Amino acid sequence: MTLLARLTADPGADAGSWIAEHLAELRESVATNGAVLVRGLALPDRAAAVAAVRAVIGEGMAEREGFAPRDCHAPGVYSSSHWPADQPQCMHHELSYASSAPGLLAFACVTPPATGGVTGLADAAAVLRDLPVELVERFERHGWQLTRSYNPLVGTAWQDAFGTADRAEVERYCAENGLTADWHPDGALTTAQTRPAVRTHPGTGERVWFNQIAFLNEWTMEPAVREFLVAEFGPEGLPFNTFTGDGSPLDKDTVDLINDVYEKHTVREPWQRGNLMVVDNLRVAHSREPYQGDREILVGLGEPVRF
Question: What does the record list as coiled-coil region(s) (predicted)?
Fold first, then answer.
């Protein structure tokens, strides 16, 4: 497996027609390699990019429990997360903390950044093999825990994350999907969930490191951001944080080690206007690097997998 295969369309090829003609080839390439990048398509505007993404993912799935705001452009098709341009989004698998995650992602580049902004990719099976055995065994034994504190000042409002302003509906969702939900007198919400850190890919049978342990941990935050949030909300009021599944905190060295192993396996390809990238979300982790200038990358969530 090469991780990221590359295909080139005729320059300016109509995206919809090209995808319809080559969809089987795209799917086969993703199944073989994990991800495929198509260059040369005509994606002149957002509407064309939305149509291209939908042609790949089909019906799409709605995002629930998103950790950062984003705009919905069509069923299953979203903007990139609204995340500060100067701060990275470390390696993760989309919705790996949820009970349902997309099996397939499709990214379309409407506007490439002036500099940076790469969506890096990493082979989740290779990452698992390179992590220390004792660390993997600990997370396999206990799983990993994600805690979230929804407040009106930072991150995503709970109404947006759960797609409803009805507290009873949020409580129903949490009960059905293995989350605890605690309401505070000021209307803030705290949730916690414990998930496996290692999954078996339903198609290949590979064991993969499938989680967001390092990305959503306090030690991956910029130090100044972390210090501000701790001072403002207290260590238990961070918008998100991760732990070993038994609730044990993670030290900075452990989080840095995981990110270092990801870095060892990261593949990078700069965005160009009209690029289309299709990714197996279970086999391949992705990141977003800091950038300058405008950047518009749409993402489609498809083929949901229920765990």
Answer: none
